[in-house]
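Support request, please re-run this one:
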Amino acid sequence: MDLYIVPCAAFGFLLGAISGLIPGLHVNTFAAILLGASPVMMKMGLTPYHVAVIILAASISQTFLDAIPTIFVGAPDSDTVLAVLPGHRLMLRGRGIEAVRLSAMGSAGSVLVALSLIPFLSWLFSSYYDLLMEHIGLILLSIAALMIMKERDIDPRMYHTMKRRALALSVFLTSGLLGIFAFENQELLSSPLGLEPDVLLPLLSGIFGAPSLILSMFLSTGMAEQRDTGFDLPAAPLVRSIIMGGAAGSLIAWIPGVSPAVATMLTRLGMGIEDEDQSAREFLVSISGVNTSCAMLSLVALVVIGRPRSGAAAAINELIELDAGQLYAMMAIATAVALVSYVTTVWLACIAGSLLSKIDYRNLSIIVLGSLALITFIFTGTFGIFIFLISTLIGLAPHLAGIRKTHAMGVLMLPLIIYYLSG
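Re-run finished. Output below.
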């Protein structure tokens, strides 16, 4: 038995936990650092495979632990942006620990879904990858259209429903145009500290993070006492949400440029609005499942089609050329890390809930909002702050209009739709 595997997996788990708990810090940052430091690590007795294990473990554990800052303080990263609204809503009602439990359950369950889909998806994409890529633009356009058409009012009169759909389309197009502008001008981003800028940081922090914090500042002066009440979601919708999230994440792991946040919109199509509380809980489960299954299957995509679909997979590809035997071993490692991550996430959520219940939530929201702006400036400079401010204004629109926040995912989807349809 390789005696280095367990310590390497544990170290990767720790790195992923750190990146998950600190808003703005992504596991891709650690992947890049580890890749650069790999020669030194190999002189210490490690092999490229050991470094790959560290990166894999970090990418898995982050998808669990990032639920805590997303839910308790409304500070998401690029993969958890859509979890802010349902998770934050539960937290404000004193059910933040429940929200984290649901998120962790979604991530853990999606591991099983992802593993079960490996044979089918490997066959599908190895056989029909080029054909599927030819139609991905139309697929994304159809998803966006379905999301807008599912926006309806409780008032049965058509006028009200058409009004909501028009508002949804406006938010989708406005956020999409901002996304196009930001991506086309991302060379204007410049970190004052010389860090690698990422245009998604100001875009998604502004659209999905800042508005929830701003509204929380006005709606509440204190955080409700957080109690560990388990979770209020029947078995059937729980299993359905896990399967939907795991399947969507597993599918999207093979498609270039399409983020887990976009894949999450697939899960939204299967949820009704009859019971908003249950729908929010199901959505929270699915979001987390998308992120974890995508992290796992991106490694399978690397082996099957030879193309890395995530920063972690790209770093691993630089280190080793995975074969089937190594892939099976890494899937087993990822499963073990997921189990430890689930337990750790729930444990830390209970601690966080207890500590944050004693804090004035309005002041906490101000601090976190200021931190998001500061992180944006540190990583992206003055132009990043400009994008952050415009994104925040657009992000407030769905709240004020009373429509689903997911329509603001046009910020990513519209640029992708145009790119694939024009290509």
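The radius of gyration is 21 Å. Residues 5-422 form one domain.
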